[in-house]
Structure formats: structure tokens, C-alpha cells
Amino acid sequence: MQAIIETRQLTHTYSQGTPFEHTALDRVDFSAQAGEYLAVIGRTGSGKSTLIQHLNGLLKPTSGQVLFDGADIWEDKSRTRQVRCQVGLVFQYPEYQLFEETVYQDIAFGPKNMGLDGDEVDRRVKQSARFVGLEPGVLEKSPFDLSGGQKRRVAIAGVIAMEPRVLVLDEPTAGLDPSGSARILDNIRTYHQEKNACIILVSHSMEEVAREAERLVVIHKGAVPFSGPPEEVFAHGDELEAMGLGVPAMTRVFARLRSMGVDVPPSVYTIPQAREAILAALHRGPRKAALGLYGERKKEPADMDVSAPPAEFGMEQASSDEKGVR
């Protein structure tokens, strides 16, 4: 299957030819399929932000190619402009980019720049507001009167209103409380499911990407050392720790259980998976699971088989019987 967006031997060097020259990406091959939900993970300075800015033409490669639907996005200016409408990019803290008088006008900014008529703009504004959970009454308010979480949703709605086939989000939950983060991720999931859009989520949260993404792409020092389903990538726990990334808390817990001899699978990285694994271990035998957790222990009186008399009692009984015979 042809990727909807991909890079081939993508290299990007900042300040080329100066003493400050720095290669942020070095011959990176990356691809994403239509309808896929993948996550890009990497520590600060790894090159992940440079990568995503290439996907919609904000940066031009030093060498290599960026392809959308199999064609180079830099083949001509009209092609580049078209791709920028098809690959939506939501930067970190996008609420700082709000500037219109009303929420409606801010969401409508992108569709209007696409040259759409008024009815189509109106449809897209209302639909994108629904995707991100904004009530109709909010549309006529000033975006600056909203809470931080609402501003974030308005900014995401402004990109969604362009109906991109690829939606790239750079740390969309940064700075939000747990309930706000969960709401944003629910909104993204809704757009993914209803539009069959490709979602590329950039995040530092291993728990977040473990729950949301079907595939993980690890960026480290401008290269891609690992790519695959979460269970495959998180199996490289030691290497990820060395890269400053780590693994989800549940993966660490189950690695510890395995080191203690508990028969649990290694590829556990979410709470639902942990629940199923523990129930399966208990189903195989509560005593076996407990021994794996605590090790063999010395038998206490409560563990002894009280149906059989102690050896001493048997000897004393035999002695008494002999005396009775005499």
C-alpha cells in the first residue's frame, strides 16, 4: 500500500556552511498510511519537530524528498500550497496563535483562505467545533474569554476545519490537567474515526502514546532506531531508557514482576492490558501467582495438613499400645 506521506533519505542541516552547522535529520526514511494513528517520540533536540515541519512544507530538505500521495511536495509552488491544506500542523501551545474577535472567525480563517464559499465555510466551522466539543454558544464569544483548555480546542478546530487528510499534532496536551488532556485526546480520536484521517501525534508521554497510537516511531539524534507497534518498541526498554525516553509505568511494573518469577507477558503497557494479564495469571492458579510474587516460604502451622497426626504422636501412641499389651 502506498503511503499517504513519506520521507526518503531526508536530511536537514541548520546553519549550513557556518560554525553553527547542525544536522537535525540524517537520511531519515519515514512513512504514514492513510487512516493510521501513529506517534513520534523522542527527547528534546532529537529532531522530531524538524521532521514534522517538513511534512507540510514549512521546512525545505537539505537533501532527500518529502512525498505526498507519491509526488514530491516541492515539485512546484502550487503543489506545495496544496499539500499545506492537506497536511494540517498543530503546534505546541497553539492557543497563542489565536487572534480573531470571535471563536467563529478564528476557526473560519483557514477555510476562507482556501477560497471556499460562505456556506461551505459555515459547515466546516460548525462541524470542527463539534469535533472538539465546543458548544454552539461559544462560537460568538471572544477566544480570549475562554479557559486554557477551550482555547486549545479552538486552535485545533481551526486546523480541523481545513479537513486535512493528515493531522500532525505537536504535544497537544502540554500544560493541561488530566481531564483537559483526556478531552483533547478524545477529540482527536473522534476526528480520526469519522474522517479516517492519518493522525501523527508527537508526545513525550509514554503512557499517552501507548494508549492512543497503533504504531510508534522513535527519533534519536536525527535518525529512526525503532519503528513498530507499541509492544515491539517498548520491548527495547533498556535502549529507550538510555535515550532518555523510558517506557510506560505498567511496562516497568511487569518487567519487575517477570524478574521475580511471575508468569506474566512482557508486552504490557496499558492499564487494561495489565488487568487482563493479572486475571490470566490468577486463573492459572492463585497460589502459583502468589509464589511468583513472594517466593517459596517456610510452612507455618496454618499450612500443615492437620488430617495426619505428627510423627511424635504416632511414636507415643505405639509405645502406649505396647505397654497395654504387656
List its traits:
single chain, 326 residues, alpha/beta, 6-stranded mixed sheet, 4-stranded antiparallel sheet, 43% helix, disordered C terminus
Topology as a string of helices (H) and strands (E): EEEHEEHEHHHEHEHEEHHHHHH
Gross geometry = globular
**Strand proportion:** 15-25%
Provide the spatial order of strands within the biggest beta sheet: 6-7-8-3-9-10
Ends apart, CA distance between termini? 96 Å
Secondary structure elements and pairings:
Blueprint: E1 5-14, E2 22-32, E3 37-41, H1 48-55, E4 63-68, E5 71-72, H2 77-86, E6 87-90, H3 103-113, H4 118-131, H5 148-160, E7 166-170, H6 178-195, E8 198-202, H7 206-212, E9 215-220, E10 223-228, H8 230-233, H9 237-242, H10 249-259, H11 271-284, H12 286-294, H13 311-325
Parallel strand pairs: 3-8, 3-9, 6-7, 7-8
Antiparallel strand pairs: 1-2, 1-4, 4-5, 9-10
Helix pairs in contact: 3-4, 3-5, 4-5, 5-6, 11-12
Q: In words, what does this structure look like?
A:
With 326 residues, the chain is α/β, with parallel strands linked by helices. It is 43% helix and 18% strand. A six-stranded mixed β-sheet has the order 6-7-8-3-9-10, with helices on both faces. The chain has a four-stranded antiparallel β-sheet with strand order 2-1-4-5. Helix 3 runs parallel beside helix 5 (148-160), helix 4 (118-131) crosses helix 5 and helix 5 packs parallel to helix 6. The termini are far apart. The model is unreliable at 290-326 (pLDDT under 50).
